[in-house]
Structure prediction request, 288 residues.
Amino acid sequence: MHPVVQHVRWVHRSGAFDLSAPVVMGVLNITPDSFSDGGLHLDPEAAVDRVAAMVNEGVDLVDIGGESTRPGSRSPDPAVEISRVVPVIRAIRSRWDLPVSVDTRRAEVARAALDAGADIVNDVSALGDPEMAGVISRAGAGVVLMHMRGTPELMQNDPRYIDVAGEVTAELRERLALALDAGINRERIAVDPGIGFAKTFDHNLELIARLKELSVLGQPMVLGASRKAFLGALIGGAPPEERGVATVAACVVGFLNGAGIFRVHDVKMVREALQVAAAIRGAGISAG
Prediction:
């Protein structure tokens, strides 16, 4: 058996998240080609308007990305990525006391985002850039270490696992050790199994079903299943914008299996569902 580990908090540059309740991380892609909201928020004013909407919906953390990491995507120049994310981070900082993460795999971009006021680096390559760990450690930032094999350009070219949950756990353990060796405090590190990143339809389902097994890493867990293709396939090929209810289902199951932080597009819908799930689970624990 793999019991669900309840983590107390996740520390970042300007505070800490209380993980006694689910944390909702709102997605803000400032890209022309992200699979769900590509092109919608390239204008900084449109991006800030979307943040305002997420704040009204009860978001806990906004995750800003300037590079699409959908399967087959190509990386922009780092200067382009910086030009997309930094103005929005500064705008958020001027208007709200809201934690911000930057979704990047490049140390150069992370450094610029942290200088602009970001609190967390959400790294899909789990410190693949050899300079990334030092940038995060020196800034005292939080970090998400996500599992992925290869790069977004090639990651879906025949991904294979003998034991997907066991292999993801082992590979994240290696990245966690690298982060700790670089001086990143354990309380600042979260892990993410990388749903949709070098995973097939069946791998995604099995990982969410077996999330409890990742609790052996001893770190808060992020689940990023929002609007992904495997959910669309399960509900008859629905396009991304029609996968909200499917996302809710994946998040609730993920929560019951140990995830505490949820990276989503549909903030209000997911927040309310997780609030109900947490209350029901809490009542069961109290009764027991």
User: Anything to note?
Assistant: The CA atoms of residues 34 and 68 lie 5 Å apart. The chain has one domain: 9-287.
